[in-house]
Amino acid sequence: MRLFTVLFITLLLTSFAIADVNDGLLAYYDFNNNTNDLTSNGHNGVSNNITFVGGINEKAAYFNGKNSYVDIGDNLDSLNNDLTLCAWIKSNNFEQFAKIINKGQTGSGTPINSGYSLRFMLPSSAPFVKEPELWFNICDDTNTFDYISYPVKYLPKNRFIFITGILFANNDKSVMQLFINSVLVASKEINFTYSDTNIPLSIGALHRGRYGSTSEYFKGTIDEVRIYNKALSVDLVHELYYKTISNNNLSVCNSPVCGNIYFHGKPINGSTAMLIQSGEFHQNSTISPEGMFKFDNVVNERPFSVIIRKKE
């Protein structure tokens, strides 16, 4: 007997006007030929060997992977503990041991390793890392550490990607979330939050300031960096993503809509997925070992179904 599971998903890619995306915004860098903070908070960055290239919105900062970074100084520590980090990034190779946005996360800091970051990790950097990954991670003043991740093999190369790391902070139960192009790809509950650190905030590298050398350089383009002292809602993540696309007449996919559906816990690894919209079959493909079904060519504002045939 064949067993089918049907998922009904509705896409409504219309305009979002739910809340102010500037509420709680502590620093914003559009890299339009400078590294200034566009908020009134004055957290201007100091450019080190970056160049300005075409971005998701006018200009962006290109980091050469050797000695490029932006130094923002010892700022934006506690942020009331709720935290959101956003950036548009592009690279021809995401298999890097590198930082995108970083505060602390080093043994040179006080407290040791405390802080937060969006970064890339490699298997050679830690024994528990099995493949190259994108991370959102935090650490507290007792060196308690945790992270959520996404395999970089699913990130499209040479195309801008919107990444967002969010922390709903509480000393007893915090929640970490990681979004790719406004899609939630990882989430985890933890029982701590991050701590302040004396290591400078930096973009594109781990910059230790007067406490050590700079390392873990990112190679690629970074644009539209935002740092919040609040945990953005899913609706606000959507708004930032789609507003940026619509304002610049952009498409980050080669089809009307594309994305990934993840089945957590890998319950149907190796099964076949079929996508149906408007009564027509669009795709028929095998679900990946990670429980992912990648879809494309879906028309905006129409519901579609995914039929899963479980592996016999």
Q: Keywords for this structure?
A:
2 domains, mainly beta, 312 residues, eight-stranded antiparallel beta sheet, Jelly Rolls, 4% helix, 1 helix, 23 strands
Provide structural commentary.
- Residues 1-18 have low confidence and may be disordered.
- The protein is mainly β.
- The chain folds into 2 domains: 4-13 and 254-309; 25-232, Jelly Rolls (Sandwich).
- The longest helix is centred in the last third of the chain and has 14 residues, at 234-247.
- The chain is built from 1 helix and 23 strands.
- Helices cover 4% and strands 42% of the residues.
- The protein has one helix spanning 234-247; strands spanning 4-9, 25-29, 46-48, 51-54, 59-64, 69-73, 83-90, 98-104, 115-121, 133-139, 145-151, 161-168, 174-180, 183-190, 201-203, 206-207, 214-215, 219-228, 259-262, 272-277, 280-286, 292-295, 304-309.
- The protein starts with a strand and ends with a strand.
- The chain is globular, with a radius of gyration of 20 Å.
- The strands form 5 sheets. Strands 2, 4, 5, 7, 12, 13, 14 and 18 form an 8-stranded antiparallel sheet that branches.
Summarize the structure.
By secondary structure, the protein is mostly beta strands.
- Strand fraction equals 35-45%
CATH architecture of the largest domain: Sandwich
CATH class of the largest domain: Mainly Beta
Q: Which term fits the overall shape?
A: globular
Query: What is the CA–CA distance across the termini?
Result: 9 Å
Helix residue percentage: under 10%
Give me the Rg, rounded.
20 Å
Number of distinct beta strands: 23
